[in-house]
């Protein structure tokens, strides 16, 4: 019976708190393949920066992303439960850069960006609240070993949720 099974699954999901098992650093063998694992045993796993762009300036011609706060709150709660220090930044312009923090005592860095995005650039770009875009490639390269030595050899994880929508009748970028 589909409805009975669906109800049982719903009850199980509602009563189950997801968990993640973390391996200590080393190698993992599976079906003859070797996988490298990262050390994740610091008192706090790492830093999680969540950039939540909700209210866009009028000159950006982009609509506000009012539902984004719900996603932001859930992400903040989840990463705190996974033992990350979470820093939520709201409504950043394209010129704001990530501050250079010392990540020496952390094992990982996570960056979450909730904003409007552009599919015109490959691999994509996100909008600051003032309108101009920042290429995803620029964002990810900011945390490489050259620009952020304290993260060298450590996992850097990026979650980018760009809302690809039409702004208004005015163009965001000049046409050529």
Automatic annotation (TrEMBL):
Top-rank taxon, per record: Eukaryota
Q: Which InterPro entries match?
A: Caspase-like_dom_sf (IPR029030), Caspase_his_AS (IPR016129), Pept_C14 (IPR002398), Pept_C14_caspase (IPR011600), Pept_C14_p20 (IPR001309), Pept_C14A (IPR015917)
Any single Gene Ontology cellular-component annotation = cytosol
One family name in Pfam for this protein: Peptidase_C14
Q: Where is the Caspase family p20 domain?
A: 46-161
Alphabetized PROSITE patterns for the sequence: CASPASE_HIS, CASPASE_P20
Q: Name one GO molecular function term.
A: cysteine-type endopeptidase activity
Share an example GO biological-process annotation for this protein: intrinsic apoptotic signaling pathway in response to DNA damage
Q: Which SMART domains match?
A: CASc (SM00115)
Checking Gene3D superfamilies in the record gives:
3.40.50.1460
Query: In which family does this protein belong, per the annotation?
Result: Belongs to the peptidase C14A family.
Protein name as catalogued: Caspase family p20 domain-containing protein
What organism is recorded for this protein?
Paramormyrops kingsleyae
